[in-house]
Amino acid sequence: MINYHFDWSVIARNMDRFLAALGLGLGLAVISLAIGCVLGLAVAYARVSPRRWLSGPAWFYVELIRCMPLLLLIFFIYFGLPEFGIYFMDKTQSFVLTLSLYAAAYMSEVFRAGLASIPKQYVEAAKAIGMRPWQRQRYVVLPVMFRITLPAISNNLISLFKDTSLAAAIAVPELTFLARQVNANTFRVMEVWLTASAMYLATAYLLATLLRLVERRYASIR
Amino acid sequence: MDFSMTPGTFLFEAWQARFSLLNGLSVTIGSSAITIVLATLLGILVGITLAYGWWPLRLLARLYVDFMRGIPVLVLILFTYYGLALFGINVPAFWAGVIALSAFATAHVAENLRGAVQSVPAGQMEAAKSIGLRFDQRLRYVIIPQAFRRMLPPWVNTGLEVVKGTTLLSVIGVVELLLASQQVMARNYLIIDFYLLAGAMYLAVNFALAQLGGMLERRFSYLRY
Description:
The complex is a heterodimer.
Chain A: H1 9-13, H2 15-48, H3 52-67, H4 70-80, H5 91-116, H6 120-128, H7 133-163, H8 175-186, H9 189-219
Helix pairs in contact in A: 2-3, 2-5, 2-7, 2-8, 3-5, 4-5, 5-7, 6-7, 7-9, 8-9
Chain B: H1 10-16, H2 18-52, H3 55-70, H4 73-83, H5 93-118, H6 122-130, H7 135-165, H8 177-188, H9 191-219
Helix pairs in contact in B: 2-3, 2-5, 2-7, 2-8, 3-5, 4-5, 5-7, 6-7, 7-9, 8-9
């Protein structure tokens, strides 16, 4: 450090690229969370189902994904799926698929806990006023469950956002990839990594604050 | 999958690659073990600072933990790998990775310990004070034993995260299980088979670790209040 002279002009020159890369990472996280929520809800319903042929595979899926390193999944889907004759995905789509499958496993655990925490009386009351099974889910169970699980969903969004850094491994041009590239081209090690860290940190913090506002807005109806 | 032992089949190639794969597995397990031990020791220190520290120290610990939890591990690893050289510290990629992973896991252990310690009812601390125990005795004999059971499940989870996190060391060129498998694949193009094999090995390690955690939890389930 003694002889290190900071030169922030490299960062200033590349700021638009840094911001675009950050935006890409954020977009990947949001899309994956959205797909992951839908899939995760299906998996959660499968897991609480009394039918063994539904709950068994769902349990297996969740445990499998949760024991696998994300990087391994990314490589497996990116390099492995073409072996099965699936060629149509570019690296970004392949990464979104991986992160969605990964998010689905974690979200399903969140939703399962959410479903379990809904008082039985709610469903019974819905039954008593003559709601059909899907109406009970649509108007009673799901709205309450989403409110209960909102903090966990936002936590997952933040950790998914941090996980988008792994997309650098298959050359998706998000923030970590760009930082590595600029680092390799200019050797401004401290500037590049401090900038990348600060951008991740600031975005994560901003997301957390924003989501806490959303939580407060919706927590009132319990 | 063809199960005959001729060149080009999975079994043959896996047998040919057994030493590099086992070597990769040992690097994965070794780096995880070092990281878990380091992170636990440092995490206890930082966690106790978070819970009871003098306020400037507590602020520092809080900043450290929040920073570590806001930055992706991969960025930390790359930062450490490229950054340490600037301080004149020339460490091999393995140690740069272990340092970064430990720094990350320390924050998790610390936060987890803080939560566990603060969940012990305040009356316990007061009672320990009133019978005249010193601070270290209060922690050693009263608080930590009760907090221990609370922090066990998240601690095991951090351990699993660390094992999964060691795959990121492949990015800076540490030949752990993932990179070792990829090197084997580069030789024989059996991509699916060797990713599945690597996956099964990770599954085995993580499953064993989770079982160990479960055993510890049952062993210490009498610590309850």
